Amino acid sequence: MKKPGSRNREIAGKERKLKHVKAIMTVTGIDHTGIIAAVSQALAQNQVNITNVSQTLMDEYFTMIMQLEFDENQIGLAQVQVAMAPVEEAERLVIKVQAEELFNAMHKL
């Protein structure tokens, strides 16, 4: 039996465990109005939660890094990257999504 507030979801009468994935997304491009709105809207439409965000401007260049969390049973890491492709094109950005473990391993001193 499922407890209230448990990390499981019931689908078609069967209980399944959520498989939370953490990822890091980087966004770069020429600054213009609507970048954060476009990115966050696409993530929300795909049930991806933004757990941390940092953004800055360097001259005319916009840079943002986001920590994301999502249920891999609903959307996979590669699917998140694919879902961001229309935003990349429409907003003229470069968006990269990678597993948080990989990102951390690549950036350890």
From TrEMBL:
Top-rank taxon, per record: Bacteria
Location of the ACT domain: 24-102
Matches recorded under InterPro entries: ACT-like_dom_sf, ACT_dom, UPF0237/GcvR_regulator, UPF0237_ACT
Pfam families listed in its UniProt record: ACT_6
Leader sequence segment: none
CDD domains: ACT_1ZPV (cd04872)
Family membership noted in the UniProt record: Belongs to the UPF0237 family.
Protein name in the entry: UPF0237 protein HMPREF1862_00231
Lineage: Bacteria, Bacillati, Actinomycetota, Actinomycetes, Actinomycetales
